[in-house]
Amino acid sequence: MISVSKLLCGVGAEGDGLRYDAADESSKPQIAERKQRRPVVVWNLTKQCNLYCSHCYAAADTGTAPGELSTAEGKRLLDDLAAYGVPVVLFSGGEPLVRDDLTELVRYAADSGIRPVLSTNGTLITREKARELRDAGLKYAGVSVDGLPERNDEFRGQDGAFDAAVRGIRACLDVGLKTGLRYTITERNAADLRGVVDLLAEEGVNRFCFYHLDYGGRGADIADADLSPAAKRDAVKRLCDLTRAYHDDGEEIETLLVGNYADAAYLVEYARRNMGADAAERVADYLRRNGGDPTGERVADVDYQGNVHLTQFWQGYSLGNVRDRPFGAIWEDESNPLLARLRERTDHLTGRCGRCQYQSICRGASRLRALATHDDLFAPDPQCYLTEDEISGPAASTPNAD
Prior knowledge:
By secondary structure, this protein is an alpha/beta fold. Helix content is 40%, strand content 12%. The chain contains 17 helices and eleven strands. An eleven-stranded mixed beta sheet has the order 1-8-7-6-5-4-3-2-9-10-11. The two termini are 22 Å apart.
């Protein structure tokens, strides 16, 4: 995650220590005082979902799937993650609220010293459920809204999904549970970006996560609906402009970019053109501390059957299963050639990525998109939108309109 609000506006957040080794700069309580040494783990604790979204990376279905980790197995996993030092577990799916033991597992994670957070479509959250999860120790709920009503409901495959998600957001806010809005952009909903940001401000939500489409699960089936690189650049610029405008109006909305580390390089360029050379160097310094795309290093995924993945979007490849070996043993086993090569990826990047001046803050962006598009793990990310001048170096300081 790349915090636009932190980098461009200096807005402190709970993740500043975890991402940038900048805990002492924020007045907010911190998830961690130091940059993470262990991965944040996404746990897709079920494949079942009450919706059928066209871009679902987990290829979730409305029916149950065999082999889900039981409650007891889930607790053993959480014990394992706690012993390994995992700072955060993100309960995801499918739709995690279809599991009757979600509250029990959230409480167990919290009691184990892991920060529990939730990724949900929001449609099953009532005020009672929100209060129950808050009391169990849930620290944050991220609710997915992929456009204004018509487009969101088309994405979700169900009429009324938008209204139900907004009710879920309100339920969380009513009981004091920190809540954010998550939005995955494609050419189908790009026109709704401003409307979605305005919606969260109207509802009192102060966190917005802007996701790029990754080509995993059903996301691969709609790769042709991804924005062109030029349109993607424009959308990121609009988000930067919106963030600064809201900040100038006294609204401290935390905005984050997820899924394309070309955004990191672009933020340096944006800061240079709009805020000056000193601001650009400050942004670049934070992003060097952050370390670029986290796949296989600072983020991991465990699916509903216990398979460990390089990231939640890369469900098609398993490093091993927690029913057979502890998570830490799997994660540190660099006899796996894919894991080892990803961790030294800058030695292998080719084309634009191989010669880019921003390798230290991007690290080639999405290797999954490169593999899906070029059948080459180290080919350029097809959704890099930097210009040739920007990747080369000296000309990057020349101001222009975008």
